Structures are given as structure tokens and as C-alpha cells.
């Protein structure tokens, strides 16, 4: 029965979070397009990149300071500060991506250029064991709280999991996580998105958006089915410990991560372009605020705003060598039930 509930929850979450996360990103991204030096793209992208990186790094560096303040806050004060923290960090993440992708868009999109972007970034992420961090909604959900409630709310996991007490190591780990791993994820997404732009009916944006959405969700459904035998095989391989099993399992995780990233990019592109064309296309300013508002409010009410931020990082191997039944961590109802007593804005 628990397995059936998990499956139903996964499909429900996939349908729910795909459009909401995309709405948040599209709205936040294009708000910057509208207000942040719209007549000077180089300055606009430069400010986006600098502000995004600076805030993202500062929130990494100061996570223990925020946590220490957390213990002194009343529940109402924590409710306000945690939402404000998430909102600012969300803007930083979106602007970081917007700035880097904006500069990369200045180079003409060709199959060769986009292909090289995708291949090189994918290889580097695999070598650095960071491929898993490119997966996004609808194949990922992250609750705003966990088993420890609000105690670890402000914690942002770095790639190497260095302790903050190791000052210089922690500083370098934060820089490595933000500038290298997250930067490569941005490049990979730009390459995949660019290839989709070139391949999927480029002469008809409306049809291209719908087709992108259909392909993305078709890939998502296939991956949701395939993940079960993949994890069962991984468990069996670990138990039998045959030669080179660890390398094989790691390669499987990298492949599954890339497939999940591609499926996510298809879904995002479909929802994003459909909003551009159908949601008040003659009033861009109001359109982007509606997208931003719906995404922000709904995700915060559902205590899953972290799904849109994805500030923390993991390493390849964390999933395939775990005892999880599924590869993709997609839960909403299960998270609400499991952490109902620890939800943000409640008791410590």
C-alpha cells in the first residue's frame, strides 16, 4: 500500500510542481528583463550575475549565523524571516542564471555551439560528481522543512560538505559550489534548452511550446517507471558486489541525471513559452507579475518553495548507493504528512 501511495504522490507532484516552479522562474526572470536596465542588456546581465552570485555566496557564508539567530526567534518572527530569506535567495538564484544565460545568448545559436556546451558541461559535471544537481521540477520536490523542523532551515549544503568551523576550507567549498558546480549546471541547461529551440519546430513558437511540453512529460512518465527497476538493480548489485559495480552504478546515476535534466528542460520550456504567448501577451509587465505571484504564493503556502530555489548541492552516488526505492525524490503529500508537526512557522 505504501508503494502505491508513493507512486500516486509522485504523479500528482509532477503535475503540480512543473507549472508552479516554471511560473515562478519565468515571472522572476522577466521582471528583471522589464526593470533592470532594459535598454542596456550588457549592464543588465552583468548586474544580474554579480548580484546573484554575491547574495548566493553571502547566504552560504552566513548560514550558521542565520541558524544561531533562528533559536532566538519567536515563531511569528521566524515565519517572516524565513519567508524573506527564501524570497531573497530565490531572486539571487534566478538572476545568477539570467545573467550567465543572457551573456551566452549573445553568441549565435548553432547545433555545434549548443552541442559543445551540452557535451562539455555534462562531462565536467560527471567528472566532478555534480550531475545530480541539474535535475529540477517536475522530477524533484524539496520541502521547506525536514525531520529537524526549523532548526536546519537556513542550512545550505555545499558540494564537499565542509564544516563551517574549517573557515578557509568552508570558504573555498562555498565558492566551488556556487561558481563551478552551479555554473556548470547553468551551462548544461543553456545547451540543452538551445538544442531544443533548434530542433522542435523553430518556425512555430506556439506549436513548439506544446510539443516541448508533451515530450517533457512523456520523458518524465517514462523515467518515473524506469527508476524502480534501476534502483532494484542497484540494490542487487551492491549486495552481490560484483567487479566494477560501483563504477557501473555511478555511470547509471549520471545517465539518469542527464535524462532527468533533459526532461525538466523540455517541461520548463513548454510552460515558459506558453505563458509568454497566452498570459496577457500584450501586457508583459502585468503578465510577469502574475506568473511571479502565483508561483511564489502557491509554493510558499505548500511549504515547498525550496523546490524553486534548489540552493543546496549533492554529489553523484548519493542516490544510487542509498536504500531509496526511487531515483527521483518527488513527494508532496508524503512530505506534508511526514513533516506536518515540523512545518515552517510552527514550534521549534
Automatic annotation (TrEMBL):
Transmembrane segment boundaries: 7-25, 45-63, 84-104, 110-128, 168-189, 209-233, 245-268, 288-305
InterPro entries: Fuseless
Keywords tagged on the record: Membrane, Transmembrane, Transmembrane helix
Keyword Transmembrane helix applies: yes
Keyword Isomerase on entry: no
PANTHER family referenced in this protein's UniProt entry, alphabetically: FUSELESS, ISOFORM A
Name of the protein described by the UniProt record: Uncharacterized protein
